[in-house]
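To the structural biology subgroup,

Please find below the input and predicted structure for Methyltransferase domain-containing protein, which we are adding to the shared reference set this quarter. The sequence is reproduced verbatim from the submission form. If anyone notices a discrepancy with their own records, reply to this email rather than editing the shared folder directly, so we keep one authoritative version.
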Amino acid sequence: MRLYKSLALALVLTASVAAAPAIAQSVTVESAMSAADRPPQHTERDAARKPEMAFLLPYLKAGDTVLDMGAGGGYTSMLMSTVVGDTGHIYVQNPASWVENYKMQPALDYLTSKRANVTVVVAPFEDIPSPAKPYDIIFAGMIYHDTFNDPKADVAKMNAALFKAMKSGGYFIITDHKAPDGTGTRDTNTTHRIDTQTVIDGVTKAGFKLVTDSPALSHPEDDRSLNVFDPKIRGKTDRMTLVFQKP
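Predicted structure (tokenized):
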């Protein structure tokens, strides 16, 4: 039985790798993390975030236009800024309530003071920033479930706007905490998790095609019942890693 499980996992991993684009990355995860201007509150998170960044950053290249949704204080934004370089641009989006409630403004000010290729946008998720050229990459890192938590939010409208703002061939990459299968959006505002199929259904309905469903951030020992901030599971939740592409 163990052999069959190992073979099944190998097939999943092979399929995920095969579906990923062959992108020549000139900036490695390690070199992006070693940038001298990164603040301590970023670097102290590197060990925990490296698996996610190792999956994400190879999708980017110099010159890309990128939207970092729900970017918080810009941990991922700063790394992506290094990868896209002076000819690329990163749009950093947060809702106003996040910036105010979580005191993000100093971190965002620091980010823009250090990186000329970053624009900070404070706006609801469905108000997608209009880039100078269509997005090559859109990233929603562990926050897609949050888009359902504002009673006024329209996630279908958001997904449609993302599709419109992206270039043909561009990638919409989502990582998030998995809820028990079949629970839909039940847990988005309690344990801060979401059902994987609900994410897939909503994004593909907007016109995107699912090209990769990777186990890169899988933690099968997580039974998906605890709040993601619970010390027993924080940083070790079972997470989806989905890549969608605009045809």
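Summary notes: Residues 1-24 have pLDDT under 50 and may be disordered. Strands lie at 65-69, 89-94, 118-122, 135-141, 166-177, 209-214, 239-245.

Regards,
Lab coordination
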